Amino acid sequence: MSETLKIACFGDSLTEGYGLAREEALPAILQRELYERGVAARCLNFGVSGDTSEDGLDRLDDVLEAEPDRVVLAFGANDCFLDEPVEEVSARLSALIEAFRDRDIPVLLVGVNAGLNPDPDYRARFEAIYPALAKQYDIALFPDLLAPYQGDPSLTLLDGMHPNEAGVQAMGRALVPLVENLARGVKP
User: Fold this and answer.
1) Beta strands 70-74; 41-47: pairing state
2) Which of 58, 39, 57, 45 is nearest to 13 (CA)?
3) Quick one: CA torsion of 113, 119, 124, 128, rounded to 10 degrees?
4) pLDDT tens, residue by residue, 65-82
5) H helices, E strands: number in the chain
6) Distance, CA of 90 to CA of 48 (rounded, Å)
7) Looking at the whole model, is its pTM more than 0.90?
8) Which residue ranges form the domains of the chain, and what is each CATH number?
9) What does the pLDDT look like over 111-169, one tens digit per residue?
10) Which of these, 85, 181, 95, lies nearest to 133 by C-alpha position?
11) End-to-end Cα separation, the chain, in angstroms
């Protein structure tokens, strides 16, 4: 690729790099990984700790103003934690996907597991959001952003929930093949 792509990494603390320096956050890791794979991309950090999919809708204009070529959409951890109604989370994510689709901006949807929610029915319905939306919109899906580090205390901050620098690197390595496909225009 001759031109540098702008990839908006749009999400919550997992995107922002909670407790870490900017250069240790997921967008910076993805950008370095992409360069190593020969993809010229600038990964913009549109992550805000504590944000839900509703907050994402509130911040959508900021992302659109940056005129990204691609979007990595990663909301859900806080929605699940706050017990947000599954139908509303799905509708909000759908609205975000459609806003980018309307502008011909390809999206990679990034899901999370709902393991912290005590209700097994809620967990099942919540986790079903992501594959359903990926199928509905024919977009690529990375099913669980938490999986590369969750359950390994050596990859988390002291809170046991957020990834440390090594945890973010694990997330980045797992995610980068799909981000590379997104950057190169490979259809899911």
Assistant:
1) unpaired
2) 45
3) -60
4) 999 999 999 999 999 999
5) 8, 5
6) 20
7) yes
8) 5-184 (3.40.50.1110)
9) 999 988 899 999 999 999 999 999 999 999 999 999 999 999 999 999 989 999 999 99
10) 95
11) 20
